[in-house]
TrEMBL record:
EC number of this enzyme: 5.6.2.4
Positions with a binding annotation for ATP: A30, C31, A32, G33, S34, G35, K36, S37
Keyword Cell wall biogenesis/degradation: no
Catalysed reactions listed for this entry: ATP + H2O = ADP + phosphate + H(+); Couples ATP hydrolysis with the unwinding of duplex DNA by translocating in the 3'-5' direction
Organism domain of life: Bacteria
UniProt-recorded name of the protein: DNA 3'-5' helicase
Pfam families on file: PDDEXK_1, UvrD-helicase, UvrD_C
Record's keyword terms, sorted: ATP-binding, DNA damage, DNA repair, DNA-binding, Exonuclease, Helicase, Hydrolase, Isomerase, Nuclease, Nucleotide-binding
PROSITE patterns tied to this protein: UVRD_HELICASE_ATP_BIND (PS51198), UVRD_HELICASE_CTER (PS51217)
InterPro entries recorded: DExx_box_DNA_helicase_dom_sf (IPR013986), DNA_helicase_UvrD-like_C (IPR014017), DNA_helicase_UvrD/REP (IPR000212), P-loop_NTPase (IPR027417), PDDEXK-like_dom_sf (IPR011604), PDDEXK_AddAB-type (IPR038726), UvrD-like_ATP-bd (IPR014016)
UvrD-like helicase ATP-binding domain sequence ranges: 9-290
Occurrences of domain UvrD-like helicase C-terminal (ranges): 291-567
Organism expressing this protein natively: Paenibacillus helianthi
Length: 968
């Protein structure tokens, strides 16, 4: 098939026209369920088919999960065009902020060692540098009037693209604090998402000669979910697009639901007035929902937001084999929840037309619990209670499995609470033994019945000394992640049959990791108390288990807020709690610390607040999650409300000729065997996580699924800063090796260890920090002399790649050395993986397996993605500047790919056995939460061997157990 035939076979007319349009600026209005992801994917594949270089293509998605989905669709489209799927690795498909991080790193490698902070991380950063930023204790309520308002002011200032200098005339104190915050973030090697994008805009605006800039290779930019772009993101898009050949934006103004955090729907409403040569395409066929649901949606938006939306009449593609549309009102919320649970129970196994098989026959399956969603405007009320309680109770009574974003609060269950309260015992110095023993008996044993009392006292004593010891001249390093591991070991969670405790404490580990990112140490009573304050005031309400639950509880009813299911779809949707006092939510406006004179534009467009049109768009987003069955429900009496409730106006505004109001549990079709809809291709993975599966699948489960983090090692960050300095050397010296003085200068300006304290007297009393810096300087001076020829080659540092391996995309980064001839172009390529270690004396006895697979995968990526024929692969150990050759012949590479395919299959099958053996368990970071048994794999197929410098080796997970006899 030629290009035209491929496009016609896979796209409808509207999608086709958008894909082949060659205008410079393209606006693609895509309603819910209209195939926008397919359109984006085929647009990218079409560009490649027209001869455009894959590395010239950028696609911004709203989330990383959305990026994974788009990548897989692009892989499918490329395959149909006859191109390697691995071209994806040459493109950039991801979030805008992650592109900014990459862009900044390409401009100056120092940014690659910056930590990117989310809101929780920024809160912790402010707490850890409270006085440096100009805040004072006792100056108002600590969190509510100091920390949180300043965090919001910083992020809003960046998102709204407000010049910091303009703040001074209105609020000098706020100006000084924000100025200091920016300086200290940069000094200490941190940035948050908003600041990363702002820095990216500044760098783009400095470019006057694209051909000699960091964006020289880019030609095409595609932006998904354009309706949710905020001002600084739009400034970045517009500035970048001014240097490019094409900008295509895709979105739906009717689904703009993030105005409360700064999204500007005007971006999409006024696109064709702000850009020249604009072509507009409308994808107005909803392939997801029935005609009744779609027509009701059309009636609703026309009635509620007609003047603040782009006009469009959406049509349905198919009604499928079942449909049901109702709005129902109940006397009380318990009755409402009971009906919802009964309706779910009555529909399980209903015959459902899923699609068309490759042979043209219809594909049916029976509905399962995972096909149902219960959506609420919000789950947590102002008192911190969960509004989903009646629904979870009703489902539990019938044995219906569910997952709830309200259930994501680990501090609603005893496991995290017990750990938190155990840590609270050490808030003050001088904990009496009797009090600790009483706490163990009354608080620990009821929650962790296998806990060890003697070890509990020993661990508390150890950490009491660590935290409250008198401050000496040299600061000590006290890391709370190690404390958490010690407590988990004491509580003996490894013997629990129910893994809820492990899951909850995995998220607690993430909270502690965020603390450790910003606090170099908690080595004083004050710093330790600050950590406890963060856990008790912020973390308790701001960390959720949602991503973990989606992996662990696959076939269960989703109970969620509407915001959290954006981009998802379900055969059956219940939009509940449709009462006037909750949905639409009452009107609100911006009330932050930034001067209102500078926030006029944001306030006028309703940003950082709530308006009726925002609520209407949220409701529209909720109803368009439904494929075939939609129920809108509400009730008069609620336990947490004193007055009787009235119906939401949205119920009245949503009309359809097929709307029912009866409560009958009628069958919609015959019943057949329930079969889950599980799109395994949506499971994201990367090589770093796959690598742990090859050693021990249970370790993968603990780290990747449950989220446990290792304790901070000595000289944490040494490898990262070594690589960063090496990359800066190659950025600055492309045709000659740097001198010793030039190396020293780069080391001095780039070296950064965030978890090691510099000496107060570095000349006379150098410490670990200074010794590490001198070591890196010596290593890189020797490297620049011994491998001077590397600087005469064209180098690609951290070239991203993605290899399509059956059901997953394996991501990574390649260090390449390319030999270029002026006449013949690039003649050879070497893959080099730099490690901050020494080559072992006995090369044959060393375990090269992980590193060999990595280099072999990278060599394959270099061949297919970058188009270079890799001749050799190396592990370069920096501490002794030696290179060890890794086999990269065809068979070795095929074995490596086979190993990864085997691991991906195991991950998708949830096959996570413990594979205990002395060698692995002795160095495992997660010994405290593992029973260290030898369990069998579900899959009896053996993976290939790995070809290493020491010969062919089995995976570590298949090594002899060394005497372990408890195989099960």
């Amino acid at each position: 098939m030629n290009t035209e035939e491929i496009l016609r076979a896979n796209l409808n007319n509207e999608q086709y026209e958008a894909v082949v349009d060659e205008s410079r600026h393209i606006l693609c209005l895509a309603c819910a369920g209209s195939g926008k992801s397919r359109t984006l994917a085929y647009k990218i594949a079409y560009l490649v088919s027209k001869g455009e270089a894959p590395e010239g293509i950028i696609a911004f998605t709203f989330t990383e999960k959305a990026a994974e989905s788009i990548k897989r669709r692009v892989a499918e489209a490329l395959r149909k065009f006859g191109y390697p799927e691995n071209y994806i690795g040459a493109m950039f498909i991801g979030t805008l902020d992650s592109f900014c991080q990459k862009l900044l790193g390409d401009i100056n490698a120092k940014y690659r060692q910056y930590d990117i902070l989310d809101k929780n991380g920024l809160i912790l950063f402010l707490m850890s540098r409270f006085r440096q930023i100009g805040l004072r204790h006792g100056e108002g309520r600590y969190f509510k009037e100091n920390i949180l308002p300043l965090v919001d002011a910083w992020q809003t200032m960046n998102n709204e693209n407000i010049d910091l200098a303009n703040i001074e005339q209105y609020d000098a104190t706020l100006f000084n604090r924000l100025t200091k915050l920016g300086e200290i973030l940069d000094r200490d090697g941190y940035m948050d998402f908003s600041f990363a994008i702002r820095l990216g805009v500044q760098e783009l605006k400095r470019i006057t000669d694209k051909a000699n800039s960091c964006i020289a290779k880019f030609k095409h930019l595609l932006v998904d979910e354009y309706q949710d772009i905020n001002p600084i993101q739009e400034d970045f898009i517009r500035t970048l697009a001014s240097h490019l050949d094409m900008l295509l934006v895709v979105g739906d103004d009717d689904q703009s639901i993030y105005g409360w955090r700064g999204a500007n729907v005007q971006n999409i409403l006024t696109f064709n007035r702000r850009y020249s040569d604009v072509a507009v395409h409308r994808l107005l066929v909803n392939f997801r929902s029935t005609d009744a649901i779609v027509s009701g949606g059309n009636n609703f938006v026309q009635r509620t937001i007609s003047l603040v939306r782009l006009s469009k009449e959406i049509k349905s593609h198919s009604d499928g084999n079942i449909q049901d549309l109702r709005k129902l009102w109940f006397d009380n919320r318990i009755e409402e929840a009971e009906w919802v649970a009964q309706r779910i129970e009555s529909l399980i196994g209903t015959k459902y037309l899923e699609g068309i098989n490759p042979d043209g026959t219809e594909k049916y399956r029976g509905l399962t619990y995972g096909d149902f969603a219960i959506l609420l405007r919000s789950i947590r009320n102002s008192n911190g209670d969960n509004r989903d309680k009646q629904f979870t109770d009703a489902l539990s009574k019938r044995g219906i499995p569910f997952k709830s974003s309200g259930e994501g609060g680990i501090f609603d269950r005893p496991y995290a609470i017990c750990v938190q309260h155990s840590m609270e015992l050490l808030r003050e110095a001088g904990l009496p033994r009797e009090e600790a023993l009483e706490f163990f008996a009354s608080n620990v044993l009821p929650v962790f019945p296998y806990a060890n009392e003697a070890k509990f006292i020993t661990i508390l004593n150890k950490w009491h000394q660590n935290i409250h010891a008198s401050t000496s001249a040299a600061r000590r390093k006290v890391y709370p992640q190690e404390f958490l591991h010690d407590l988990i070991d004491v509580f003996n969670v490894r013997d629990f049959k129910d893994e809820t405790a492990l899951r909850d404490l995995g998220l607690f580990s993430k909270i502690i990791l965020d603390v450790e990112k910003t606090y170099t140490s908690i080595d004083s009573s004050f710093r330790y108390a600050e950590m406890l304050n963060f856990i008790g005031n912020i973390a308790i309400n701001s960390y959720e288990l949602e991503s973990i639950d989606y992996l662990v509880k696959g076939n269960s009813v989703d109970i969620s807020t509407i915001h959290k299911v954006k981009g998802l779809e379900y055969p059956v949707v219940f939009v509940v709690d449709l009462i006037a006092s909750r949905f639409p939510h009452k009107k609100a406006t911006y009330n932050g610390k930034l001067p209102h004179e500078l926030m006029v534009d944001a306030i006028n467009r309703g940003a950082y607040g709530t308006r009726l049109e925002d609520e209407a768009r949220l409701f529209y987003t909720a109803i368009t999650r439904a494929e075939r069955v939609l129920y809108l429900t509400g009730s008069t009496h609620h336990q947490d409300l004193k007055r009787a409730c009235k119906r939401s106006t949205f119920i009245a505004d949503y009309t359809s000729s097929k709307m029912r109001e009866d409560k009958a549990f009628d069958d919609l079709a015959e019943k057949i065997e329930p079969q889950p809809r599980f799109d395994e291709s949506e499971f994201p993975t990367d090589f770093s996580s796959v690598k742990s599966y090859l050693t021990c699948p249970y370790s993968y489960k603990l780290s990747t699924i449950y989220g446990y983090n290792a304790a901070v090692p000595e000289l944490f960050g040494f490898g990262k800063t070594s690589h960063t300095i090496l990359e800066r050397m190659h950025q600055q010296f492309k045709d000659r090796a740097p001198s010793a003085e030039e190396v020293a200068e780069i080391v001095e300006s780039t070296f950064m260890l965030k978890h090691v304290f510099p000496s107060n007297d570095p000349i006379n009393r150098p410490g670990s920090y200074e010794r590490a810096k001198w070591l890196i300087q010596r290593i890189l001076m020797e490297y620049s002399q011994q491998y001077a020829a590397d600087f005469g080659r064209l180098r690609q540092d951290e070239a991203r790649f993605e290899i399509s391996v059956k059901d997953a995309l394996i991501t990574g980064a390649i260090d390449l050395l390319l030999l270029e001839d002026l006449q013949r172009g690039i003649t050879t390529a070497d893959v080099i993986d730099f490690k901050s270690m020494e080559t072992p004396e006995d090369v044959a006895a060393y375990d090269w397996r992980d590193m060999s697979v990595q280099v072999q995968l990278y060599s394959q990526a270099a061949k297919e993605v970058i188009g270079e024929n890799v001749e050799t692969g190396y592990i370069h150990t920096l501490k002794d500047n030696r290179r060890t050759a890794i086999p990269v012949d065809k068979q070795s590479v095929n074995n490596a790919i086979g190993v990864v395919e085997w691991a991906v299959r195991g991950i998708l099958d949830s096959d996570f056995p413990m594979r205990a053996c002395p060698k692995s368990c002795g160095v495992c970071d997660f010994r405290a939460m593992c029973a260290q048994k030898r369990q069998s794999f579900k899959n009896e197929a053996l993976p290939p061997q790995i070809n290493t410098p020491a010969g062919l080796k089995n995976l570590i997970a298949f090594e002899d157990d060394g005497g372990v006899t408890n195989e099960i």
